[in-house]
Fold this sequence. Notes:
Chain A: Keywords: FAD, Flavoprotein, Lipoprotein, Magnesium, Metal-binding, Transferase. The complex is a heterodimer. Chain A contains seven helices and twelve strands. By secondary structure, chain A is an alpha+beta fold. The two termini of chain A are 28 Å apart. Helix content of chain B is 19%, strand content 23%. In chain B, strands 1, 2, 3, 4 and 5 form a five-stranded antiparallel beta sheet that branches. Chains A and B meet through strand 1, strand 2, strand 6, strand 7 and strand 8 of A and strand 6, strand 7 and helix 3 of B.
Amino acid sequence: xxxxxxxxxxxxxxxxxxxxxxxxxxxxxxxxxxxxxxxxxxxxxxxxxxxxxxxxxxxxxxxxxxxxxxxxxxxxxxxxxxxxxxxxxxxxxxxxxxxxxxxxxxxxxxxxxxxxxxxxxxxxxxxxxxxxxxxxxxxxxxxxxxxxxxxxxxxxxxxxxxxxxxxxxxxxxxxxxxxxxxxxxxxxxxxxxxxxxxxxxxxxxxxxxxxxxxxxxxxxxxxxxxxxxxxxxxxxxxxxxxxxxx
Amino acid sequence: xxxxxxxxxxxxxxxxxxxxxxxxxxxxxxxxxxxxxxxxxxxxxxxxxxxxxxxxxxxxxxxxxxxxxxxxxxxxxxxxxxxxxxxxxxxxxxxxxxxxxxxxxxxxxxxxxxxxxxxxxxxxxxxxxxxxxxxxxxxxxxxxxxxxxxxxxxxxxxxxxxxx
Lengths: 246, 164
């Protein structure tokens, strides 16, 4: 039994293409995403994140989930010398960049724990896949061309894995370099392939925030394969990137 | 391990002129040049971690660039060469690298020996560069679709979701 469903949560269109599970299982994944939105959104006054930001909670009182999210934020902030940050001055605590990939990965884990082994979850262009849509074939994940919306710049062949893209066309004007407070320049698009979407998504966002420095930084991240387009329209790819030959 | 990376980078940098200007170096005992085979050879036995620098001649390093079969490498394989550098003793331990060239471009670096580790591919920032291309292709999903609702309606991913 297969299910296909799209719902807007966390401001994202989230598509679930579940090939071996039922609607009730898909609903459990969506229910988790709605819970995550209520818990982690900095735009909801009663979320745990907002309460922490207002000083109504101390770090000792947080749920283990928020502790995990904040520790991921801290790790990437340190690793990028502050270019990536969940604490933009004047904007308060905003761990969205980590929460999105982390929560969507957990939604995919819910499908797997529910017995599914073949699915594709796509949250605003960040993707988790499992199994094979057809025997012997990987999920073909097209990476959007950074300047031509209906074209691709590379196609990846992925079985169990995650692909995330952070790009200027998407929300570049909203990604600030935490070191300078200025909008990021130098890169048009960063795509990261990893085992886990929390890692892939945060690595892509952090690399983007680093601008041109992000190219080498991303390439040096363990267990990540990258495809990066800079503003000179050069494409850089890791030797291990699972490029699908069409 | 992280501290070894600058050392490795220097080793690689040292190998480049050797490769470019001494193509006969393989006969001098310090460097081993191996044409990358069509299929990966058996993995080299783990080298000893003693401080002495064993000869690398005659060893059969694993072919680098043995990436997944989906990599578009077939046409270029004829020009691929791997070169093993000398073992260098540093304050961090013994370091030896192997570099794969396509023509004069480095396409891969692997640490044959690094301090406190087994032979391993280092997370060195080596990337392949190419011109940005545009293509359309049969795909299952899109990475990098726009995040906004309006953008989604016009996106490739919406077309895929709606087509099923």
